[in-house]
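Re-running P-loop containing nucleoside triphosphate hydrolase protein to confirm reproducibility after the cluster update. Everything else is unchanged from the original entry.
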Amino acid sequence: MSLHPLDDEDKPAAEEDNISGQGKEQGQDERNYIRQAGWKALFGFTSKKHLGVLSGAIFFAVIAGLILPGQSLLFGLVFNQFANYRSGRISGPALLINVSKYSVYMTALGAGCWFSNALYFMFWLSFGELQARSARDRVFRNLISKDIIWYDMRKNGVGAFLPRVQMQIRELQLSTSQPMGEVFQCLVTGLGSLVLALYFTWDLTLVIICTVPIVYLFMAFLSTRMEPNVHGQGEKLQEALKYVTNAFQSIEMVKSFNGQNSELWRYSRAIKGAATYYIRQANLQSLQMGFMQFATLGMFVQGFWYGSSLVNSGKKNPGQVMTTFWAALMAVQSIIGFLPQLIVLEKGRIAGAKLSAVIAEMQEEGNYPGFVKGVRPQHCAGDIEIKNASFAYPTHPSKLALCDATIFFPAGETTFVVGKSGSGKSTLGQLLLRFYEPSEGEIRLDRHPLQTLDIRWLRENITLVEQHSVLFDDTIFQNIAMVKQESRNVTVDEVKEASQFALLQHVVNDMPDGFNTMVGSKGNAISGGQRQRVALARARLRDTPILILDESTSALDYITRSLVLDAIRVWRSGKTTIIITHDISQILPQDYVYVLERSQVAQEGYRKSIEANIGSPFDAFLSSQVDGVSEVDEPEDDSSNHLLSLYADSTNSVNSQDATSQYSSNPIDPLDAYLEQRESDLPYRRTVFSIPPGTPSQRNSIVPHVASPYWAFMPGAAENVATLAGSFQPYSSRPPPTYKSTISPYQKHRIDNSTETNIQSMPRYGETATRNYSSPTSMRRPRKLSPIRLLDQPVKLETKLRSWKRERKQKLEAEPTLSMTTILFKVWPKLDWISRLLLVAALFAACIHASATPVFSFVFSRLLSTFYIPTNQHSMALAYSLAILAIAAIDGISSYLFHFLLEYCAQVWINNTKMEAMRQLLDQPREFFDKEQNGVSRLAECLDHFAEETRNILGRFTGVIFVVIVMITIALVWSLISCWKLTLVAIAIAPIMYAITTSYKAISGKWEGHTNDADEKVGAILHETFINIRTVRSLTLEETFHKKYINATTNAFKVGLKRAFYSGIFFGLTDSAILFVTAFLFWYGAIVVSSGDFDTTHIIQTFSVLLLSTSYANSIIALIPQIGTAKDAATRFLRLSSLPQTSHEHSGTVRIPSVGNIALHNLSFTYPTRPDQIVLREVNINIPAGRCIAIVGTSGSGKSTIASLLLKLYTTDGGNTRPSSTPEITLSGRNIKRIHTPTLRSLISIVSQTPTLFPGTIAENIAYGLHSSSPYASLSSVRSAATSAGIEGFIESLPGGYETIIGEGGMGISGGQAQRIAIARALVRKPNVLVLDEATSALDVTSAAIIRDSIRRLVATGQERTEAMSSSTFSGSGSGSGRGQRGMTVIIITHAREMMEIAEHIFMLEQGRVIEEGGFEELRQKRGEFARLLRGGECENGGVDDDRIQMGHGWKGKGKDNGD
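Result of re-run:
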C-alpha cells in the first residue's frame, strides 16, 4: 500500500470520496442560492445609507452616457455639411463656418464629458468602497457570531476559507465600482443612441436591431453554462489555499521532514483542477465575445442595403441616414465595450452571491449563544457541577469525548484532573466555556444551568490557559493588557505586576524593544515557554473567579514551573481553580483529583487516599512516574531534598547589613530584602508542599493555605505579611487550628465519593523529606544581582528609532510596481512549446481582429459615399453590405480565437508561475517567514487573489492593447494614404494624448498600491481573529478585534476615497480628450476640403478610419484602473517567483551516509530578526554517535535553537564575532555547511513541543515526506512506528483507521494524540539522530512512559552496536565518522526529570552558555545549577535563587517605570 501523495494521480478522486456529506450539501445549497440571486447579488450589501452615493453615481453615469449620443448627433450634422458641400449645395466658406460652429459645440460637449466622467468615476469608486466596507463588516459580524462547531465543519478549514472571502469581497468591490459605472454608461449610451436613431429613421433602426433577440438568447445560454465552472474553480482555489496556509504555518516541520515535494504536489493538483475550470470559463466567454462581434457588425448588412434604398427613394437625406448609422454604431460599440466588463460583473455577481450565501447559511444555523442574552448573576462564587454529561465532537460524532461524567469543582478550591491523552480532560474546559454543549446531562455554575447564563458573563468569569498558548501579532505589553475590556485604561503597573507574577522581567529586558517587542504571528517570535508565561501574565491580569489551567506550564523549566505554580497557589487561594495536567508531582496529598479514562471518570478522591489503592488508575499513573525516579528521589545526603519539597526552610538569618553594604551601589532587590526580613523574623517558613502535622484539610477555607518566599511579591500580599508571620510557629509549639464546618451539599458529594475516611488527620506529604537548618553558619549563597537597567527617555527614543529604521528598511525593500513590458517578458520563459505556438496563433488572430476595424471603416466610408454618387448606388450598397458580412464573420472568429488562446496561455503562465513561486517559497530559509511582509495571510493572498489578477494582464489587457496598437498603426497608414495632412495633424496631437493617459496610469497605479496595502492589513486582522477564534472567544476579545478590524476597514475606505478623487480627475480628462481632438480634426478637415487640397470622399474616409479606431482605442481608458490593479498584483505575486536563491540550505553538496559524531565548537548565534539578542554564546558540545544526551536549562536558554541549527533551519553565521578556522558545527568532522541539506534532514528527525498535523490521512501524516519507494513508507512500518509511539490503539479504534482524515478540514484530535502521531512520524524513518524537543510535555504519564521505553530501547540498541568500537568521550574532538555502524543518536531537550534520567550525558544551558555537563547522578551530586534545577531553584541554604525573579525595577519598553 502506498502512503505518499507522490505515488499516483488517482488520489484526487479517492480524496473526493472522503468529503463529508455535509460539505457537499453546503456546496449544493450555495450553488442554488447563487442561481436564484441573479444580478441583484451585486447590491446585496447596499444599505439605505449608500443610496445617496448610488444615486449620484447613476446620475452622473447617465450624463456621461448621453455624451456619445450627442456626439453621434454632431457627427451626423458635420457629415451632412460635407455631403452638402460635395453635392454643391453649400460653398467652401459656408462649410468652414458651419463646421467651426459644430466644432465649438463638440468642445463644449468635451468639457461636459470631463466633468461628468470625473464625477461618475468618483461616485462609482466610492460606491464600490462602501460595498466592500459593508461586506467586510457583515462578514466579520456574522463570523464572530458563529459557534465553534461552525468553524470545525469548514470543509477546507478556516485558514483557506478566509482568503477566499477576502478575494470575493475584492471582486464584489471591483464589479460595483467603475465597471458597473461603465455598464450604466454603456446602457445609457446604447439607449440614447437607439432613441436618437429611432427619432431620425425609425424604420431603418428597426431593420438594424432585428437580430438582437437571437443574440440575447445565445448569450444567456452561454452564461448558464459558465456558472458551474466559476463555482468549481473557487472550490479548487480554496483547496489550494488550505495546503498553502498549512505549509507556511508549519514551515519548520515541512523543511525538517523534506516535505517540500509533497506540499508542492498537493498544491499542484489543486491549482490544475482550478485551471481546468477556468479554461472552460474562458472558452465560453470567448464564444460570447466572438459571437457578439459577429452579430453587432452583421447588423449593418441589412441596414446598409435598406438605408441606401431610403436615400434613393428620397424619403431620407444622407445626413439623416448618416446620423442613424452613426447612432447605431455608437449603440453597438457600447455593447462591445460592455462585454469585457460583463466578465467582471459576472465574477462580482457570483462573489456577492457567495458572500450572501455564506452569511445566509450562518444566519440560518443561528448565532452562537453569546448573542443571546442570558442570566447575569451579581456574583460568581465558582461552584461547578457536571452531572452525567456526555459529548462527542462534531467532526467525529460516533466517538464520545466525554461519557456520562459526573464531576464537581467546589468554589474557592483547587482541583486536579488527570488522565491519558484523549481521555476527555481538555474537553472539560471546552464545555465549561460553552464552546460546545453536552449531548446529554447538564453543567451547572453556582446552581445555574450553564445554558441559561449569559455567555459573555460566563467567559468574563472563567479564564482558560491552554498548553499551546496563542499570542497575537502585537507587542508583549498589548498581549497582556488587551484582556481588560478597556486595554487603554490598563496601567503600566498592572501589567508589570502581572508580568512579575509570570517571571517575565528577565525575558522582557532581554528583548531589543522590551515590552514594545512584537511577538509575531501566534507569538512565534518567542519561545514556547515565554509564550506560556505571557499567557499566564494575561490570566493574572484578568484575575477571574474561575481559572482552568490545561497543561499551561508544560513548556517551562522546572525552576520557573515550580515558582509559577507556587505563585498560582497563593494567588488562587479562595478561588476556583481547575488544573488539567499530566504532571502528578504538582498534586499535593490534600488536593482533590479526578482521573479520566476512556472519556469517563475512572477515579476521584484526595490524592493521599486514592494513591493508596494499589492497581487503581491513579496508582498506574503514579507507578509510571515513580518507576524511573524512585531511586533518585531519596536523599543521599543532607543537601538533597525531595522533588516536591520546594523552597525548604532555614531558621538561620543572613547578616542583612553586610549584604546591603556589599551592594550599596545597586538597586535593592525587593525579593532579597523580603527573604532577609523573613529569615530574621520567622522561626519557621512553610512551603507550598509542606503542611504542619495535624493540620486539617483547608479545602473549605478561604484563608491562604500556602506561603513561600515568592508570595511576598503577589499583588496585595504586602498587607498580609505581618498577619501570616505572626501566625507561623514551629511544628513543636503550634497547636492545631480549629475550623468551622462549612460543607455545602455540593461539597458533601465529594466527601461521600472519596475513599478518604479522615481528611483532617491526613499526614503531610513528604514529611520525612523536610528538614530544618540548624547550623548558624549555613548561610544562603550570595546572590548575583542581575544588572537591572533603569530605562528612561533616551531608551524610549532608541526603541522608536529602531522601529522607524525597521519600517524604513521595509519601504526600501519594497519593489516598485513593475511595468507592463517587464511583466510580459516573464511570460515566454514560463510557457511550454505548445503554449508558445498557441500564443503566436493568438497574436496572429489579434492582428486579424485589429485589421477588421479599419477595413470596416473603409467599407463604411465607401458605403456612405454612395449616398451622393449619382450612379449605381443600389448595386454598390449591396456589394459593400456583403463585404461587411464577410468582415463580421472573419472578425467574430478571430475575436474568439485571440481571446480564448490568450486566456489559455495566461492560465498556463499563471499555473507555472504559481508552481515556481510555491517552489521558491518552500525553498526560502526559515528566517524569510519571520518577516512581517511574509506572513501567512499575505503569502496566501499573493498566491490566490494577486495571482488571479495577474492572469488578466495577458488574458485580457495585453490582447486589447496589442489590438489597439495594430489597429492604430493600420489606421494611421491608411489615413496617411487617404489624407496625409489631416493624419499628420492627428499624429501631432498624439503626444498630448499620451501624456494625459500616462499621468492617469501613474496616479491610478500609485493609489492602487496604497489600496492593496490597506486591504492586506484588513486581511491580516481578519485572519488573526478567526484563526485564533477560540482564544478570542475565551478572553472575550470579540469587541477588541472588532474595533481593530473596523479601524483597518475605515482606513482602507479612506484610502479608497482618496483614490477615487485623484484618479477621477484624470479619468474624466482622459475620457474627454478624444472629443477635443475630434473637434479640432473636424475644423481642420473643413479647412482642407474648402481649400480643395483633398476631396470629400478622402476626408470622410480618413475621418471614419481615425475616429472608429481611436474610439476603440479609447475603450482602454476604462480598463486603466483594472490594469493598474493587475500591475500592482503582478508586482506582489511575481516577486515570489523570483526570490533570491541564496539560502544557506544550498551551501552543502556532500551527501553523507550517516551523521556520526556531532560537535559544536564555540557556537554563537542570534536570530536574524533579533540581531541584538544573543541566543547562544560560545557553546561547546560533543555528542558521539549512538549515544543519548540531554540538553536542559531554563526556558529561553537556547535549547531548541540548537535543534534548529542541527537541521540547518538557520545558518550559524550570526552571533560569532570572533574569527575561527574551526567550523562551529561538524558532523563526523565535516562542516555542517558543506553537507547536502535534504540528506542531512533525512538522517535527523525531530519531535517538537507543538505537534503539527498536515491535511490528509493518519498514515500520510506518519509517512509525511517519505518517497513512495522508501521501505519506511509501507503500512507495516507505519504501524510499527505507531505502536512505538503508543498511538496504535487509538488509531485502530477509529472507523477509518489509518485512512482517517485529520488536519485542516478533518477530524479533530487531542493535543496528546497529535503529539504521538508526530512521534510516530519521527520514528518511522529510523533516523540516525532523533531530537525530542519537549516531546512528552503534552503526553499523559502512561503515554510518556511508552515513549521513554521506546527511547531506552533505541539507546540500548545503540550501546550494543558501539560495544565493539573504541570508546569516545564527550570531551573528544567529535571527529569520528560513525558511518552506519553505530546506533541511533538521541538528543533530548527537556524539562522533565524522567527524560533527563534516560540520557547518558547531560548538558545544562543558562543564558545561551553551557554551565554544567556530566551524567545525571554526577551532576546531581555536585549540588550545582543542575541540582538546583531539579529541586526547583532552591539555594544551598534553602532560600530561593532570585536570579530569575528580577522584581521591581528596570522594565524595558512601554512598561518601564516612568510609563509611556
